[in-house]
């Protein structure tokens, strides 16, 4: 008996050393859930993920935040992800058309644009028209915030002449807060997050251009990913989204 048990004990010990204590201790194995999400979601999604991890023992949520179009390109190139959350429906549709997202998407939030300047507003900007003639930074057209910017400018009948077009809304905000630009068009949620680092100038036309945010599991058979999607739709998560400035997901 001892000769048969000893190799088993040694094997278990080797397994413990080579992998993790969960193999022989009965502890749950660590699972990593990778979420690709629009840059504007960075702060609130990290907060929501902490609640999700607390409710799912042994699960760690890891994020990749970037412009939605860049994230779809990464998925098309084979980047591994479990969940995709986009800042507009167009990029989610693109992901589904390219067959890189196969889960059922659901709208979970909305967002609108606003104009921000550095806190001291050195250029004295008071309107979108003023910003159009200043050192203005906006999102690139292929990014959801850039598409919304184009639509809003058309709605206002104003031709924008940006000095820079960025690949994410956080990059636009960064150029404004660092003083590299006189003004920038960002989401309301980003302006709230920036706090006293920016001066916010409301744009009447912004209310007519709303971005709706969809989220979906990348694979339709990924149970944990679907649980995360459902968690985003839960009342506590929705309350956190509202608290950070996101609007209703209802069109």
Automatic annotation (TrEMBL):
PROSITE patterns: PROKAR_LIPOPROTEIN. InterPro entries: ModA, ModA/WtpA. Gene3D superfamilies: Periplasmic binding protein-like II (3.40.190.10). SUPFAM superfamilies: Periplasmic binding protein-like II. It comes from the Bacteria. Molybdate binds at residues 40, 68, 169, 187. Keywords: Metal-binding, Molybdenum, Signal. Residues 1-25 form the signal peptide. One of its GO terms (biological process) is molybdate ion transport. GO terms for molecular function: metal ion binding; molybdate ion binding. Belongs to the bacterial solute-binding protein ModA family. PANTHER family: MOLYBDATE-BINDING PERIPLASMIC PROTEIN, SULFATE-BINDING PROTEIN. This is Molybdate ABC transporter substrate-binding protein. It comes from Tessaracoccus antarcticus. The lineage of its organism: Bacteria, Bacillati, Actinomycetota, Actinomycetes, Propionibacteriales.
């Amino acid at each position: 008996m001892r000769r048969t048990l000893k190799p088993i004990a040694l094997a278990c010990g080797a397994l413990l050393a080579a992998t993790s204590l969960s193999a022989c201790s009965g502890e749950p194995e660590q699972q990593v859930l990778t979420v690709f999400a629009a840059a504007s979601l960075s702060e609130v999604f990290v907060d929501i993920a902490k609640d999700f991890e607390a409710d799912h023992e042994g699960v760690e949520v890891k994020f990749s935040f970037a412009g939605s179009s860049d994230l779809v390109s990464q998925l098309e190139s084979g980047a591994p992800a479990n969940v995709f959350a986009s800042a507009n429906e167009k990029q989610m549709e693109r992901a589904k058309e390219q067959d890189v997202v196969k889960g059922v998407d659901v709208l979970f939030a909305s967002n609108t644009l606003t104009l921000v300047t550095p806190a001291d507003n050195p250029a004295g900007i008071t309107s979108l028209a003023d910003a159009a003639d200043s050192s203005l930074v906006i999102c690139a057209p292929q990014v959801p915030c850039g598409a919304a910017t184009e639509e809003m400018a058309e709605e206002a009948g104003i031709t924008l002449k940006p000095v820079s077009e960025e690949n994410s809304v956080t990059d636009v905000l960064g150029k404004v807060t660092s003083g590299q630009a006189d003004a920038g068009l960002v989401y309301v949620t980003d302006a709230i997050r920036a706090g006293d680092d920016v001066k916010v100038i409301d744009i009447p036309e912004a209310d007519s251009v709303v971005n709706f945010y969809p989220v979906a599991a990348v694979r339709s058979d990924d149970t944990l990913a679907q649980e995360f999607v459902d968690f985003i739709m839960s009342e506590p998560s929705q309350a956190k989204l509202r608290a950070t400035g996101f609007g209703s997901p209802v069109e």
